[in-house]
C-alpha cells in the first residue's frame, strides 16, 4: 500500500535537491519554435511547464503538463525527461506506487548524467514510500553516484533494508553512516532506526541505548519524539524498559539549555532523584 502520508517529505526532498533537476526547467524559458503544433514544440513547452509547476509547489498543474510532454514524443532521451517530470508530479501528489515505475523508465532511458542519477535515486525513494520491494537495491545503486541525491540515497538505503526485513544489514549501514557523519542533521533519526534494527535482532540493551541517545542528544526533535514513542510502546507491551539514568537526564537538560529552553531543562533536572548524581555532576546541575 502506498504511504501517501509521506508525500510531504518527498516534496521537501525534491525542494532540497531541485538544482540536480534544473535541466528540466530550461525549456520554460527557451524560445519556442514558431509552429507550436509540432510534437517537439509541445514536448518543449510541456516539460518546462511541468518543471516550473513543481518548482512553485503546484503539483496538480505539473501532472497534466507532464502527461502532455510524455504523449508528444516517441521513446528516447527526450521521452526520458518527460517520464522524469511525470514521476515527480505523481510523487508530489503522494502516488508513489505509480511514480516508481515511471521514474524507473526515466532512469533506463536517460543517458548517463545527473538527470539519470536523479531518476534512479527518486525511484528508490518512491519505492520506499510505497512499501514496495526493490527499494534497497535501487537506493544502493543510486548511492554509488556523486552529489546530494546520491548522498540522500545512502542515508535512505538502510531504511529500505529495514523495511525488507534485513535488520542486520540495516544496522551495519546505519553504524557506518553514523561513524562517518556523526554531526549530520539526519543522524538523530538514523539512531532511532538503528535502535529499531537492534530491537528486531534481539539486542535489547543496544536498542535501549540508541533510543536513549536520540532522546538525550536531540530533545524536541522528531527523532527524540520517535524514540520516546518507541520506548513507551515497548514498555506498554510488558518489556522492562529501565528509566533514564540520572547522568542521561543531566545531559538532556544541558542540550535543552543550549537550545534556549530553560523551562524544559529545569523539568529534566527536577526528575533527577536527590543524591542520585555524583558530587561533581551534581555541581554541574546546580
Can you tell me about this structure?
It is a single chain. Mean pLDDT is 80; it is low at 1-5, 15-34 and 277-286. By secondary structure, the protein is mainly α. It is 70% helix and 0% strand.
Helix content: over 70%
Q: What is the CA-atom radius of gyration, in angstroms?
A: 23 Å
Main β sheet profile: none
**Structure class:** mainly alpha
Beta-strand proportion: under 5%
Instruction: Provide the low-confidence segments as ranges.
Output: 1-5, 15-34, 277-286
Distance between the termini: 52 Å
Mean pLDDT over all positions: 80
- The tally of beta strands, per DSSP, is 0
Helices and strands, in order, run as: HHHHHHHHHHHHHHHH
Tertiary shape:
elongated
Count of discrete alpha- or pi-helical segments spanning 4 or more residues: 16
Helix/strand layout:
Blueprint: H1 7-16, H2 26-29, H3 39-55, H4 59-71, H5 77-92, H6 96-109, H7 114-130, H8 135-142, H9 148-163, H10 167-180, H11 187-200, H12 204-217, H13 222-236, H14 246-258, H15 262-270, H16 279-285
Helix pairs in contact: 3-4, 3-5, 4-5, 5-6, 5-7, 6-7, 7-8, 7-9, 8-9, 9-10, 10-11, 11-12, 11-13, 12-13, 12-14, 14-15
